[in-house]
Amino acid sequence: MADVKSGASPLFLREEELRQCIELLFFAYRDFTAGPDKILKEYNFGRAHHRVIHFVWRNQGISVSELLDILRITKQSLSRVLNALVERGFIEQRPGVTDRRQRLLYLTEKGQALEHKLSEEQRNLVAKAFREAGGEAVAGYRQVLSGLINEEDRETVLKRILGN
Amino acid sequence: MADVKSGASPLFLREEELRQCIELLFFAYRDFTAGPDKILKEYNFGRAHHRVIHFVWRNQGISVSELLDILRITKQSLSRVLNALVERGFIEQRPGVTDRRQRLLYLTEKGQALEHKLSEEQRNLVAKAFREAGGEAVAGYRQVLSGLINEEDRETVLKRILGN
DNA sequence: ATTTTACGTCAGCCATGTTGACTTAAATTT
DNA sequence: AAATTTAAGTCAACATGGCTGACGTAAAAT
């Protein structure tokens, strides 16, 4: 009874540790995403545009449905954002060669330039955190975050991240 | 010249590694936050409510301005969410003892129950990832994520997470 | 007595998510 | 060849949760 509340109880410590790590994820994500927002504003874009730019850059020639699967949003939500990017010349659509129903997505040079500009600060931030933490810590980071990915499609996602 | 594009270039590898870790953070966060959303819907609450519930639970008696500082949103945004939680009896406001302008926030029993319900799946998920990754990996995870927190208030934030 | 601070409200706007219904063209199946 | 399924798009309406700006009140600090 008493040791349920005891600070020395391993069960309590475990839960407290979990909570801390959950908060850590919140704060890290909060500050990590804060960077690009300023730049995006100058272009009258938002985070949604950034996500599209990022994943099209990483997966040149991705189909719309694949992109939808990554972002986990509806095609109606995507279309608003995607249309803006296409109209303003950041993304180009080309019909698929084997399946001409597809409209495969590519970043234009302008789009690539923006991608680079947007990710620069983030890359510097992560690079600094990595340098300070060391290689082993980075390995741990990767392991734990991989474990947080939904088990059902973890393999697929990891494959995509690491480059098929 | 040539080795700028060479796959063996350490500079290229470094950048590629960074990109991978950035994506990892995106996917992990995406799947990590997906859990509570179902439960929240049953209550007609959203993620914003969850965040408030979480941080009030972790900082019983927190003032409104402190909460605003954590969430990094405007008081007008907070008020909508907070008022709903107070009206429906999940959160209680009490005037501060030393400073009676403050309306310190507390979770009611009902609020604590909801917090527990909401975090349960998340805690299980993180616990599983930790078990699979091992203690060293967890230490790395913590180190790297700490490094991603905005340098200016990192100390303050870490203090809050770890419990002053 | 004045100013500042903590908190609150009203009103309106914007970004980005949702559902549902319907279209078109190409690919696939029967 | 005809029917069905699939990839993608569109229109419309709505919800959530951010934002700005203006203004109010009570308590604390100067």
From TrEMBL, chains A, B:
InterPro entries per the UniProt record, alphabetical: ArsR-like_HTH, HTH_MarR-typ, MarR/SlyA-like, Tscrpt_reg_MarR-type_CS, WH-like_DNA-bd_sf, WH_DNA-bd_sf
Transmembrane segments: none
Keywords per UniProt: DNA-binding, Transcription, Transcription regulation
SMART domains associated with the record: HTH_MARR
Record has Translocase as a keyword: no
The UniProt record lists the keyword Transcription regulation: yes
Protein name: MarR family transcriptional regulator
Originating species: Sneathiella chinensis
Taxonomy of the source species: Bacteria, Pseudomonadati, Pseudomonadota, Alphaproteobacteria, Sneathiellales
